[in-house]
Amino acid sequence: MQYNLADLHTHSRCSDGLRTPTEAVQEGIAAGVRVLSLTDHDTVEGIAEAVEAGRQHSVDVIPGVELSAHVLDREVHLLAYFIDTDSPQLRSHTEILHGLRHERGAAIVDRLNQLGVPVTMKEVLSRSGNSPLGRPHIAAALVDHGAVLSEEEAFVRFIGDRRPAHVPKPRTPADGVIELIHAVGGVAVLAHPGLSTSDAILEKLAWVGLDGIEVYHPSHQPPQIEHYHEVVKHYGLLPSGGSDSHGGSKGPHIGDCGIGCEAVDALGNRAAAYA
Ligand code: AMP
Ligand code: ZN
Ligand code: FE
Ligand code: FE
Fold it and tell me: Which ligand is nearest to the Cα of residue 10, counting in written order?
């Protein structure tokens, strides 16, 4: 167990995770995490509960969100921290994303039907509930339906990037999303650059006000970690890190990856400078 650990990337049922926000905080405590941020996809619904659970257990919970955004036609994920989650501007953005995700989910279901997989929107919605609809919900519905044996198979055969039933999200340009994050008091950190982002995209984001990079992520190998430390220095950005844990037995657990708490102070100071 690492002392002084901050896990700044976690998910709950409020998006496509498998645990409640309170359970996420409890898992963080069990793992010895000192600071945690709940960063659900395109929603801040779980933040109030997580902050309250953190207060009860003396764990610092930083309000966060993982916003989908685009650089040209490339989707990137922007983690926002220290945001005012009550801001009408932020709420209206997440409402719009919620609606777009619903439409895109319906388009994916149409494609699946055309491919001879008779899954219905009702089955998908029984998985997503009120949460912003994501491909993991569709994957789970495909498993329920018996069309595939595992969620992984659903991605590989049907809904993964560039697979036959995949429909990309409508574009939400990253420069506008970064502007919004700053307007609501937050800092913008590029999530898991090693997963899908080229250094050219990273440079474009640095030009439009990106504040930091998720240097530490379970998908990053040591050479990438070293590389992103260099990138951070080169552009005057801040480093961040987190487990991207979604809960359940598969995948990383909260506290498996993160960064020292001093990094959180640096992010907080930059957010304060925008206020
Ligand atoms: P969406 O935001 O609807 O495009 O869904 C993206 C989410 O799907 C990611 O955050 C991952 O949690 C999950 N995902 C993406 N690709 C895969 C994959 N190949 N296998 C399993 N899960 C995936
Ligand atoms: Zn997710
Ligand atoms: Fe992500
Ligand atoms: Fe994530």
Answer: 4
The CA distance from 21 to 67, in Å, is: 18
102-138 confidence digits (pLDDT tens): 999 999 999 999 999 999 999 999 999 999 999 999 9
User: Are 49 and 25 spatial neighbours (Cβ–Cβ below 8 Å)?
Assistant: no
Q: What is the pLDDT of residues 129-166, one digit of tens each?
A: 999 999 999 999 999 999 999 999 999 999 999 999 99
Q: Backbone phi, then psi, for 119, in 5-degree steps?
A: -80, 150
Tokens representing 255 are 């506290």
Please identify, by atom number, the ligand 1 atom nearest to the C-alpha of residue 169: 4
Are 243 and 28 contacting, i.e. CB atoms less than 8 angstroms apart?
Answer: no
Answer whether 8's CB lies under 8 Å from 35's CB: yes
Q: Which residues line ligand 1 (CB under 6 A)?
A: 16, 41, 134-136, 151-152, 155, 160
